[in-house]
Amino acid sequence: MLASKVGIQDVGDKLTGKSVLIRVDFNVPMKDGVVTDATRVKATLPTLEYALSKKPRCLVLLSHAGRPDGRVQPKYSLKPVVKVLQELLPKSKVVFVEDCVGPKAEEAVKQAKDGELLLMENVRFHIEEEGKGEDDKGNKVKADPAAVTKFRAELTKLGDVYINDAFGTAHRAHASMVGVETPVRAAGLLMKKELDYFSKALESPEKPFLAILGGAKVKDKIQLIENLLDRVQMMIIAGGMAFTFKKVLDNMAIGNSLYDEEGAKIVPDIMSKAKSKGVEILLPCDFLCADKFENEANTQICEDTAGIPDGWMGVDVGPKTIEKAHEMILKAKTLVWNGPPGVFEMPNFAKGSTAFCKAVAEATQKGCITIVGGGDTAALVEKQGYASKVSHVSTGGGASLELLEGKTLPGVAALSNK
């Protein structure tokens, strides 16, 4: 049960005077030693500020950055994040520590006082974090199991209490996510918010529950569709995978649109499961089509009855589909959205995506719990300025997808239960 995990606010009194080990997600873009987008650092501020308010001896921050494959690669150093953190928390002292385990790290923690923040170097500089990596010649190598156990024990030594606020990495069974064995292991505020919202949708949804699914390939979304068909009453299937459905079910001509041959074999099973579960599925009935995959292409609206002509491809849903989707969205009391309905990155093909954003915002205002899955959909909602108009935008692309697929996240399983 996602909502039954201990949160930082449940253990506030245990932070006072202690060394608090916090796994954060500071995997931020950097250029020439400067952080270019601090969104992820800002997202952990509520947790850091809450922890500091409890007067700990120090906060020890662990994070990964990039994919250094278990080797020290200076371009992936977390040192540039110190400046950002110091600006965001001017009343606290932020110190950079050049390793995340070993004598240097342990000494820094021992010396820290008065609620200092210690930002430890990238955990992925050690092969033991992921359990695998590359050697200097680029050959794939595995970590020695005994060394992994030692690394986990060394991380554990750094804190009296462990807080995990890195939801975006919760689907990875890495040492800093699952290997810290302090007596208390709690979710940070960001992690807790994610767990509470996904629990509302997946464990106790108010009905009717609607899933809006986009994405290019049916086979990539098969587990997602299968799991959600057991839970929802309504489903909208749009984006690239809609063409595979339309071709298989209605023998619709799809021109040069995306077609997923492997996924096509699964479509009849999906539809028969939906029928047996009484799930209403909405597929597009018209499309915006383009003669080239570029913003300035010629476009036309194609109805499903006539199909899409050769040399043309579907790039967005059409006006009739938008209207039908709008009606269905407003019926929902719980809504999960994963995958845009069109190529929203190109302004001329973004009409459907914008309309879906508006409809989901409208449903939210009417009391529907709306959850936007990470990745492309989160980027769309942010870009269109609707992030504050839905209930929750997930910070984890892969992690939120795995939860919606019905999987247990290792980083969540490792947390203490209430």
TrEMBL record:
Binding-site residues for (2R)-3-phosphoglycerate, renumbered to this chain: 40, 124, 172
GO molecular function, one term: ADP binding
Pathway: Carbohydrate degradation; glycolysis; pyruvate from D-glyceraldehyde 3-phosphate: step 2/5
Residues where substrate binds: 25-27, 64-67
Superkingdom of origin: Eukaryota
UniProt GO BP: gluconeogenesis; glycolytic process
InterPro entries with a match to the protein in the record: Phosphoglycerate_kinase (IPR001576), Phosphoglycerate_kinase_N (IPR015824), Phosphoglycerate_kinase_sf (IPR036043)
Entry keyword Magnesium: yes
Family: Belongs to the phosphoglycerate kinase family.
Catalytic reaction annotation: (2R)-3-phosphoglycerate + ATP = (2R)-3-phospho-glyceroyl phosphate + ADP
Identification of the protein by name: Phosphoglycerate kinase
EC numbers: 2.7.2.3
